Amino acid sequence: MRIIVSNGIKMRMPVRTVGRVVVLVTALVGGLATAQPSLAPWPQFRGTASLSGVASERLALPLHVLWSFEAGETIESSAAIADDTVYVGAQPGALYALDLRTGAVKWKYAIEGEGVGESSAAVADGVVYIGDLTGVVHAVRAADGSRLWTFQTEKEVKSSPVVAGDRVLVGSYDGRLYALDAKKGALLWTVESEGPVHATPAVADGMTYITGCDQRLRAIRIADGKQVFEVSSGAYTGASPAVVAGIAYYGTFENEVLAVDLKAAKVLWRYTHPQRQFPFYASAAVAAGKVVLGGRDKLVHAIDAKTGKGVWTFATQARVESSPAVSGGNVFVGSNDGRLYVLDLETGAKKWEWNAGAGLSASPAIGSKRLVIGAQDGRLYALGPAAP
Question: What is the pTM of this model?
Answer without folding.
Answer: 0.89
